[in-house]
């Protein structure tokens, strides 16, 4: 059963060593938006020539900064760019005041840096519906500009945390034509995690040379198999934002390079899985694999029904190999299923075989398997070649405790 | 915050006094299907001329007894009928053995009562995927037949309980043409509650005279605004069954009578709300009203998104007036919404007014309201005339505790 711990039991041993990415610098500061005694605002500055791509929540109540980013992201430019992020307040459902806050902050960053305002991207994360104290953020901008460092990305990762119990970073180096291209990314996210198109706050940087359209297409494709395949609690944020910046500092063109794509996929998947590993109250990391579905889309519907089922997530918290609840989730998902062709595995243990309990299955084997921290549930529909994999965590007392008094 | 209590704090003060319905008798017995020291099987016998209607889960992994009931329910007959229900095992995902168990039980009831096997309806509720020990049930049939009483409905309500903390009953009397028509119903249900077409196990009896098609049409219509408008945990059972039996013993024809329809609606709504009041771990009963949506269907999508959101349900458990999470749920639901036309009330307190926090709203008012046991969340979309009301409960530590070790 889960409990509130200082750091998630599923956290990586340490924040990874992230490489310096040519063309980008970082700073973090204490603006006092909501939290006291910790950094809560970060500014990343990107060199001229940087190409920006992004994906964003499809929530119909998305926040003012998300709407502003969406309006700007398609505009190509050889000017530099800035990303300013605050935690403690999401500036969501704040009406005209929220739009005004974004305009004031982006204007102040533009004035302080000499960048066009159209190249200043912002994100806000935290409580919904409270006016953003933008003056406090604006007051920190000069400090953020004057303390930029090339290796400040770890501090930036910490400044964007809310209920996160650890900062999240991932990196990859890929050799293309004998030259290294670097990728480094950071993310925050722990609850309200059921991304729809994008997710949470994620910022990824690379020194690759790539056209903006190619960068955007690659990011959108890879989001579908990484951030759009995780869920903590089925709730979708109003602030989900993923920005990818390619500075070009490596001098290496990667436009359609499969090795670069694979490396970027790896960084995105690593960050997405770290969000699950920091799922509010999580004590188990669960991989849900669905095969044999009528289509890939059907497979994902089944996989998400399993991953979002409170009854499955609580059973796993209790280390109960309750495979009947997997049958229930597949039955309710709405996607095609035939009870008598359905098989289910816990890890390598076949528990249900084509419509009934595997006669050789021993409950003790399932119970022993459930004691692990990293679990795989696999369901085969026996209908076709559709497949999907999603990742989630269990539902514990910790989730209740965190969310019953988050605002208080 | 919730805790496991012997009886839900939201339970009615007492089981209602249910009237004798002419033409139906009941008995309950201890068959030892799973539980020890309590009744776990009930048999209702219905007089010749009884009309039967039913609605059932649309789960694609629905149980063998559900499939059997669905095959039989459309067949009109002037023979009597029987309803046999066991708790402790749902006979779901039990393959050919499950079908065989249903055939053996219905044949045994037919032999013991002289009814056609096509008029013997069964339900099973409890763990999924375990073979049903049908021999234990069959061994109890003679006792069940020989101990039938006209006033045994309360005992029947207790025999069908699983994780329920109280038996559920409701009744209505309606005068038609100066003569009384009686309705009495019982239900079980506490978790895995997100009915899709029907719900849980519900049995309603009336002495009205009515054609089978009219009875079925009325039942289906009313299910959409009662049992299909409740949710505890968004998980849909493999066993949901609602049977309605009209014995005709009153001699009063009710085919299209609006007073009868209204009375039946009241009984169904009462039973549906009792299921929510016994939601696993529930400490608050929540009415979610959505108005001003583009359509009634959109209103229900929004209302269910609010009612199923773990973040809203945990906030309510913690008595936190976190209306930003209501904004989030409407944003993610997929139905039409315009952030700047959205207003939200807690009870009569306007917390958000057309896209932003109501300037007159005081957090303390919201916090005081949340201390109540019966809460109403209302959202107006400002788009059209679509409306829907659904009912749910909060998500507490009690739900986690109950479901992390239900099978153990």
What does this structure look like?
Two copies of one chain form a homodimer. Chain A is α+β, with helices and mostly antiparallel strands and 408 residues long. The first copy, chain A, has two domains: 24-277, L-amino peptidase D-ALA esterase/amidase (4-Layer Sandwich); 285-404, ArgJ beta chain, C-terminal domain (Ubiquitin-like (UB roll)). Chain A is 31% helix and 25% strand. In chain A, the strands form three sheets. In chain A, strands 13-12-11-14-10-15 form a six-stranded mixed beta sheet. Chain A has a five-stranded mixed beta sheet with strand order 3-9-8-7-6, with helices on both faces. In chain A, strands 1-2-4-5 form a four-stranded mixed beta sheet, sandwiched between helices. In chain A, strand 8, helix 5 and strand 9 (241-246) form a beta-alpha-beta unit. The first copy, chain A, is globular. The interface between A and B is large, with 70 and 70 residues.
- Overall 3D geometry of chain A? globular
> First CA to last CA of chain A: what distance?
24 Å
Please state the second-level CATH architecture of the largest domain in chain A: 4-Layer Sandwich
What pattern of helices and strands is seen along the backbone of chain A? EEEHEHEHHEEEHEHEHHHEEEHEEH
Per DSSP, the total helix count of chain A is 11
Low-confidence sequence ranges of chain A: none
Backbone structural class of chain A: alpha+beta
**CATH structural class of the largest domain in chain A:** Alpha Beta
